[in-house]
Amino acid sequence: MRVHVRFATTFSLSIFGLLLLVAGTASAAPAIGWKEADKGLHVAEVQTVLNGDRYAITLVKIDPGAYSFQLLCATEHGKEPLSVKEWAIKHHLVAAVNASMFQADGLTSIDFMKNFGHVNNPRLSRDNTILAFNPVDKNLPQVQLIDRECQDFSDLRSKYRSFVQGIRMISCNGRNVWSRQDAKWSMLAMGMDARGNILFLFCRTPGSVHDFIEILLSLPLSLKSAMYLEGGPQASLYLSTPKITLEKYCTLGGLESDSIKFALPIPNVIGIAKKNR
Question: Which of 73, 81, 219, 250 could cross-link 7 (Cys pair, CB 3.0–4.6 Å)?
Fold first, then answer.
């Protein structure tokens, strides 16, 4: 939702992650210990420090050649918001995250959102990033994270069937476009790297969005673009494969305890399913 409250998120450090602690700032660009969850799907857990604050970040890297992307909206599926895990299990998804922030009705995205013939929100706002997938032509990229300041969305709009609009985090020239702020919360974002991989980016530690972007840019992710998805108590990530299960939610009252999970229902999710080959 647009209004954020400071919540800490729960975070279970997985045995497969290479945990990295960078003293002082995040500028040291630590290596990332990727672990294969399945073919074309990798995860990592990173710990780093920026301006004296320690951050714990979960990364999920997805090859669009191996996974199809899906947009699921409660407005299209019984008007019943579910937890991200419930969405994933019900619709046979390998992984899922919040599709965007939502309005006070608990169902409608704050920005443009469309899935084939179903329109959750027809209004194209001034926000500059749009996730586009389900192309009409197989020769198009399967997924694009469109930057409206560098690309012509009026042309691309006719070439895809599914869209999620959100707030831009990184400019076309790789700059942090988020203003500095005092407010802090847990957050979830999506990125696209130079190879066309899509990344889910989950930060359990309450922090400013500006600082989160600084950390992402310091990591060896080769990010070309990034879009803010959600922050505060609703931010959620779920992944389940035969090798790895991740379940990331918020904690209450600023606690960092890994044992306190707080899974809120959300109305819209972006999910991935393994392609049949």
Answer: 250
Strand boundaries in 74-184, DSSP class E: 95-98, 113-115, 118-121, 129-135, 143-147, 160-168
Using alpha carbons, list the distances in angstroms from residue 34 to 93, 229, 248, 271: 21, 23, 18, 20
What does the alpha-carbon distance between residue 189 and residue 99 come to, in Å, rounded to a whole number? 10
Q: What is the distance, to the nearest Å, from the Cα of residue 25 to the centroid of all Cα atoms in its chain?
A: 23
Give every CB contact of residue 261 below 8 A, 6+ residues apart in sequence: 10, 247, 249, 251
For residue 40, pLDDT beyond 80: yes
Measured CA distances, 41 to 16, 65, 272 (Å): 14, 10, 10
Under 8 Å between Cβ of 114 and 105? no
Domain spans of the chain, in order of start? 26-274
111 closest CA partner among 97, 129, 84, 96: 129
| Cβ count near 4 (within 10 Å) | 20
d(Cα 34, Cα 158) in Å, to the nearest integer?
Answer: 36
Q: Which two tokens stand for residue 45?
A: 């857990």
Structural contact between residues 116 and 134, judged by C-beta atoms closer than 8 angstroms: yes
pLDDT band at 251 (very low <50, low <70, confident <90, very high): low
